[in-house]
């Protein structure tokens, strides 16, 4: 039996995924979490074989959760189930050690198949999306991405500095670098462009 933990912030989607996966004879959903931090706690408590996570969740995103799993060497395989068919997200997911990347509008059996594939030690990634992922490199580093994401949420340089324990000047430098790398005229345009590419 493949033991699965779900991390999904939308209750209806979380329930539907659990119900669908529990119909499979060889898959058991052992837990579900509504945000990344809760999922991290459940991962350590339940020790599932596979984590199925959305990308965008409150607190800790699915990609940040995957990075933490990878960094701590947890023996769990990670599958992203998302609406984002963007090469930038896939590339960042692969860099974070994710073994599977499935779109939520795919047939349900595709997710079950991906879970089985990664549980066997393989990868389960849409081949067209995989080709796109290497066509355009993400120019942002992790700190620039973090600062730009917070700026895009409406936070001022001072607020971002307080949140990240940086000086306001350092935050402005990161924003300036991100804007320059993206060829944008301001932080709003830089945020929009980076979102479109899947780099945030």
Automatic annotation (TrEMBL):
Alphabetical list of InterPro entries matching this protein: CheY-like_superfamily (IPR011006), Sig_transdc_resp-reg_C-effctor (IPR016032), Sig_transdc_resp-reg_receiver (IPR001789), Tscrpt_reg_LuxR_C (IPR000792), WalR-like (IPR039420)
Modified residues (4-aspartylphosphate): 54
Molecular function in Gene Ontology: DNA binding
Ranges for domain Response regulatory: 3-119
GO BP: phosphorelay signal transduction system; regulation of DNA-templated transcription
Keyword field: DNA-binding, Phosphoprotein
HTH luxR-type domain boundaries: 133-198
Pfam families to which the protein is assigned, alphabetical: GerE (PF00196), Response_reg (PF00072)
Recorded superkingdom: Bacteria
PANTHER family referenced in this protein's UniProt entry, alphabetically: TRANSCRIPTIONAL REGULATORY PROTEIN DESR, TWO-COMPONENT RESPONSE REGULATOR
Protein name per its UniProtKB record: DNA-binding response regulator
Species of provenance: Vulcaniibacterium thermophilum
């Amino acid at each position: 039996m493949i033991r699965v933990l779900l991390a999904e912030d939308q209750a209806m989607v979380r329930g539907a995924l659990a119900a669908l996966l529990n119909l499979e004879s060889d898959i058991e959903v052992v837990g579900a979490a509504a945000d990344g931090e809760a999922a991290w706690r459940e991962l350590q408590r339940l020790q599932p074989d596979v984590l199925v996570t959305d990308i965008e969740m409150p607190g800790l995103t699915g990609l940040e959760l995957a990075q933490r799993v990878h960094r701590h060497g947890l023996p769990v395989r990670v599958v992203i189930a998302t609406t984002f068919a963007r090469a930038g997200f896939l590339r960042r997911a692969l860099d974070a050690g994710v073994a599977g990347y499935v779109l939520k509008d795919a047939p349900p059996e595709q997710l079950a198949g991906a879970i089985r594939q990664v549980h066997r030690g393989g990868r389960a990634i849409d081949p067209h999306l995989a080709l796109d992922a290497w066509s355009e490199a993400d120019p942002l580093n992790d700190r620039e991405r973090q600062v730009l994401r917070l700026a895009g949420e409406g936070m001022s340089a001072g607020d971002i500095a307080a949140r990240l324990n940086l000086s306001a000047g350092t935050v402005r430098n990161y924003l300036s670098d991100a804007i320059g790398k993206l060829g944008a005229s301001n932080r709003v345009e830089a945020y929009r462009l980076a979102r479109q590419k899947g780099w945030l």
